[in-house]
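Subject: Sanity check before I submit

Could someone independently write out the structure tokens for this chain? I want to compare against mine line by line before I put it in a report. The sequence has 70 residues.
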Amino acid sequence: MGRRSVALLFFGVVTLGTGAGIFIVHREQKLEREALHAGVIRDQKMLAFKEQQLQRVIPQAHIRYWLGNQ
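---
Independent answer below. Compare away.
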């Protein structure tokens, strides 16, 4: 193997390694972003559910208050 062949082999290995590293990091970031987005959606649903529960509880509390003070 001549010097040129060794240099080309080294260049190819480094290029493939770098490309694989970039691909893996990009994939991990994409998965993390999707997981974070799913968390936001879950939190929005939970807040909407709690708001809906509060809308039911608050009028009942007012009714109990007024019935108790008459």
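---
OP: Matches mine. For the report I'm noting this point. Residues 3-68 form the longest helix (66 residues).
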